[in-house]
Amino acid sequence: MHSVSIRSLDLHFGAVKVLQNLDLDIHDGEFLVLLGSSGCGKSTLLNCIAGLLDVTDGQIFIKDRNVTWMEPSERGIGMVFQSYALYPQMTVEGNLSFGLKNARMPRAEIDERVARAARILQIEPLLKRKPGALSGGQRQRVAIGRALVRDVDVFLFDEPLSNLDAKLRADLRVEIKRLHQKLSNTMIYVTHDQVEAMTLADRIAIMKGGQIMQLATPAEIYNRPGNKYVADFIGSPSMNFLEGDLSDGHFTTGGENLDITGYPFEGPATGAATLGVRPEHVATGHDLQGLPIQAEVAVELVEPMGSDTLVWTTFAGQSFRFRMDGQAEVRERDTIRIGIDPAKASFFDKASELRL
């Protein structure tokens, strides 16, 4: 069963097309992440689902109900915004219960829902405090709790961790994942942070220009990006790209003729193409054994990162990066032998940029 379905959705602001003929099905109980750079339309799509923006064309269904023109309060959703949007004059308990009181819910049920949300989010000792006495992470938990008390089918998160420091983001990311495991509600989460997307999502929808470029599991997007844009967007540092030509099990690039017989082409592939290789898939040392593509390269720049080391070099006349162990002893101007396994690489058509 689909929890949320979007059909042929368009949203225009005058002549500017923000969302274009967008279709999306979100499974019941799924954690779906909308990922993309600023201006790609991810928050706009979330606001359309929430009912905060009127669509130009298309339909939105939640639990098989057509909610396209319903008010936000009628859609059965709970939303957590980037800003905490807490009432500063109220206690945490008051913030959690405010919406329920306005809905004239019985006092006993309000107390039960507030206590349940506080227990799940581990904010029970904070209930009598006001937002000014809370840390950023505690305020965001209260904002999540305010959505949680509504007991809705679908939760919407609009970059809820972007205002927090790196350590706090990592801690709350784990808490949100645990929250989804406990509740099993459908969650739609907007972020520009690929680490959040990869660690939280059951599936990721990568967006660009108001369209979904690829919708798949984190593993599928990482290992088999559907196009060059997705390949470049996912991964830090991003994928290496080498321009060249395909012919008869070989790839010619920068004067090098590479043996790519291990790549799983579904049919004959010839013509101009781009080879993509992730820095962590470049082999060195003992891992070189049996690899069909090997070369000697000169180290140009070394970036120690603790757990690993990023090495910059030139391969086939083009800039190229690869990872080594953090304890590796490597310096500028060293010569290192590297290898590439074609089975772990990606090829993209030069013209369409689609995966081959």
Describe, in plain words, how this protein is organized in 3D.
- The protein is of the alpha+beta class and 356 residues long.
- The protein folds into 2 domains: 2-231, P-loop containing nucleotide triphosphate hydrolases (Rossmann fold, 3-Layer(aba) Sandwich), CATH 3.40.50.300; 236-349, Nucleic acid-binding proteins (OB fold (Dihydrolipoamide Acetyltransferase, E2P), Beta Barrel).
- The protein is 24% helix and 35% strand.
- The protein has 8 helices and 21 strands.
- The protein has helices spanning 42-50, 92-102, 107-121, 136-148, 166-183, 194-200, 218-223, 228-233; strands at 2-13, 16-27, 31-35, 57-62, 65-66, 77-80, 154-158, 186-191, 203-208, 211-216, 240-247, 250-253, 256-259, 271-277, 282-284, 293-298, 301-304, 308-315, 318-325, 335-340, 346-349.
- The protein has a 6-stranded mixed sheet, sandwiched between helices.
- Helix 2 packs across helix 3 and helix 3 (107-121) packs across helix 4 (136-148).
- The longest helix has 18 residues, at 166-183.
- It is elongated, with a radius of gyration of 24 Å.
- Belongs to the ABC transporter superfamily.
- GO terms for molecular function: ABC-type transporter activity; ATP binding; ATP hydrolysis activity.
- Keywords: ATP-binding, Nucleotide-binding, Transport.
- InterPro entries: AAA+_ATPase, ABC_transporter-like_ATP-bd, ABC_transporter-like_CS, ABC_transpr_MalK-like, ABC_transpr_MalK/UgpC-like, Mo/tungstate-bd_C_term_dom, NA-bd_OB-fold, OB_MalK-like.
- It holds the Pfam family OB_MalK.
